[in-house]
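Morning. Coffee machine broken again, so started the prediction first thing and wrote up yesterday's gels while waiting. Chain of 321 residues, entered below exactly as on the submission form.
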Amino acid sequence: MSEGRNASRSDSRKVWRMVSSLPRRTVQSANRHSVFWLQLPFVLLFITFIIIPILVAIGLSFTDFNSIEAPNFVGLDNYVTILTDDSTFMEFALPNTIQFAVIVGAGGYILSFFMAWSLAQITRIPRTVMAVILYSPSMTSGVMLSTVWQVVFAGDKVGYLNAFLLKYDFIQKPILWLSDGAYLLPIMIVVSLWSSMGIGFLAMLAGILNVDKDLYEAAYIDGVTNRFQEIIYVTIPAVRPQMLFGAIMAIVNTFQNGSIGVLLTGANPTPGYAGQLLVTHAEEHAFVRYEMGYGAAVSVILLILVWVISQIAKKLFADKE
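Came back before lunch.
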């Protein structure tokens, strides 16, 4: 055994001497080539599934394309029509998207941080159970999610919410929750918030649990007197990377849930355009009306909106040098 170990050590020393004897430029070149081959699969996938589709969408946004005939270049006509002549975009899709993004995006993000901080205050076993319960809705698909909530908000007396309200005489007849424009957007917001505890929530929980306890002790010595000040002056600065990741994931989750209105109602456009968002507005023109160029232009506007929001999040939570 000892002879084998000695031989292995001897071989390792020989390899190390050979590497050490190589010119520095040769070693650096080998490292660069290694990094290139390691990054190549990700770069190829990123170009194939992200860059190329974005470039195609931008290109199609300047055309009149019905998916059958060849695209016809129309310049900025689609964008001009969206901003000046599309009443659905201005009256429903854009305001609904802003309201949905503010409540579900910002509200869901704040709720995720609050729940992560709250769970960090309890012991491990109940914390693990509660984290799994809160995270589970985000793992369900949109179809499965909408199926569950369609039963709750069914428009007949068998629907759970109607049955409860009728039983205790809060209402006299069933309400068509998913067909009434007054209720559809609030229901979409509730369902989206219910499923908003995703991977960003887990990242913030992990970050809070790993904050150095000495920081809290030092903060109380320096004058921190309550839990609110502890969160502001210690917790949030200590978990900035996780906060930034959570913000990005909240943005992604918000626009990923943009089709929840169509899934709940089973129609695009939604009844009275009450649940119409930019995502569903683009899908309506592209896949219902077969106006691919116009739908691509709406999607480009949505892409710009997401980019602007992500840059704001980066400014707020990125580490300041």
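The longest strand covers residues 63-64. Going to sketch it on the whiteboard this afternoon.
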